[in-house]
């Protein structure tokens, strides 16, 4: 039987883990897709393509041209445009789609979380929480805070934040995972009063939440946007592999 051809929309640790498992399995041929945002991406095992598809119709065409049997969307939970396009494109191409989404974080006893729906909402709420702010939100949305001139920001991201930026900004170019001790010393060294983050989930960057809990520090937490409905979901790489192995072969 021919190997099942999988297009894996990536950009996350889970996507890399799944790509490694599929690349090592002769029943699958995996092509990972990256958006191309990072100048030096960590490349997954197996075949890799880089760059957008030009929307859902471009993706549907790509799926047909490359005879893809199954689409897996393992993008970040906040990559909503790509997920919406994946849903439309899989329907148009008539192939199954799986979402691989790590569970979101949940507030625990001792947490002081304040939930917001967007980064603009977080920026509007910030004046109530303190002037020294740690932004752990990636580089694309730091500009939501550019209008806050009385605040001092520390932003941690993989690459320099997009413009416009807040006038008082320290950028830390670092890649996780981070330990609780790392996070405590960062918060103390920069005399941070409030953390802004998105509910990404996972363990690679969750230590900051433990550190905030320990210090009694408020967290402005951006809720996860809803993912398209009616699409099968896996919460772990193991579940995704089981689902892929259960897919019936496509008609030739
Ligand atoms: P987005 O807003 O949902 O997507 C914007 C556009 O980028 C899409 O319409 C698509 O362009 C292209 N794109 C996104 N993911 C792609 C992929 N895996 N392969 C090919 N093209 C892709 O996404 P985003 O929030 O900018 O995230 C971009 C990438 O960074 C994603 O792969 C995501 O997994 C990763 N990432 C995002 C975050 C986050 O917080 N958003 C955090 C960590 C990693 P076309 O319309 O031209 O097809």
Describe this entry's structure for a reader.
By secondary structure, the chain is an alpha/beta fold. It has two domains: 4-103 and 226-246, Rossmann fold; 113-222, Rossmann fold (3-Layer(aba) Sandwich). 29% of the residues lie in helices and 22% in strands. It has helices at 13-23, 55-65, 80-93, 119-125, 180-189, 207-215, 237-246, and strands spanning 4-9, 28-34, 47-50, 70-73, 97-100, 113-116, 132-136, 152-157, 169-173, 194-198, 219-222, 233-234. A six-stranded parallel β-sheet has the order 3-2-1-4-5-12, sandwiched between helices. The protein has a six-stranded parallel β-sheet with strand order 6-11-10-7-8-9. Strand 4, helix 3 (80-93) and strand 5 form a beta-alpha-beta unit. The longest helix has 14 residues, at 80-93. The protein is elongated. The mean pLDDT is 96. The protein binds NADP nicotinamide-adenine-dinucleotide phosphate. Residues 9-12, 33-35, 37, 52-55, 58, 75-76, 78-82, 85, 138 line the site of NADP nicotinamide-adenine-dinucleotide phosphate.
Secondary-structure topology with pairs:
Layout (H helix, E strand, L loop, with lengths): L3 E6 L3 H11 L4 E7 L12 E4 L4 H11 L4 E4 L6 H14 L3 E4 L12 E4 L2 H7 L6 E5 L15 E6 L11 E5 L6 H10 L4 E5 L8 H9 L3 E4 L10 E2 L2 H10 L6
Parallel strand pairs: 1-2, 1-4, 2-3, 4-5, 5-12, 6-11, 7-8, 7-10, 8-9, 10-11
The structure holds NADP nicotinamide-adenine-dinucleotide phosphate (NAP).
NADP nicotinamide-adenine-dinucleotide phosphate binds next to strand 2, helix 2 and helix 3.
């Amino acid at each position: 039987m021919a190997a099942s051809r999988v297009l894996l929309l990536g950009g996350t640790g889970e996507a890399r883990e799944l790509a490694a498992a599929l690349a090592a399995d002769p029943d699958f041929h995996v092509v990972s897709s990256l958006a191309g945002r990072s100048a030096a991406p960590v490349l997954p095992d197996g075949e890799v393509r880089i760059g957008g598809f030009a929307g859902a119709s471009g993706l549907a065409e790509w799926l047909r041209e490359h005879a893809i049997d199954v689409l897996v969307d393992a993008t970040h939970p906040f990559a909503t445009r790509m997920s919406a396009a994946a849903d439309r494109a899989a329907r148009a191409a008539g192939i199954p789609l799986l979402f691989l989404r790590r569970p979101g974080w949940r507030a625990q006893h001792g947490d002081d979380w304040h939930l917001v729906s967007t980064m603009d909402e977080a920026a509007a709420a910030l004046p109530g929480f303190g002037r020294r702010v740690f932004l752990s939100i990636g580089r694309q949305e730091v500009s939501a805070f550019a209008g806050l001139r009385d605040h001092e920001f520390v932003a941690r991201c993989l690459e320099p934040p997009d413009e416009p930026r807040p006038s008082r900004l320290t950028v830390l170019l670092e890649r996780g995972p981070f330990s609780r001790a790392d996070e405590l010393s960062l918060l103390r060294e920069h005399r941070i009063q409030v953390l802004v983050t998105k509910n990404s989930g996972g363990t690679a960057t969750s230590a900051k939440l433990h550190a905030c809990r320990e210090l009694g520090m408020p967290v402005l937490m951006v809720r996860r946007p809803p993912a398209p409905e009616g699409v099968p979901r896996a919460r772990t790489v193991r579940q995704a592999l089981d689902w892929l192995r259960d897919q019936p072969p496509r008609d030739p």
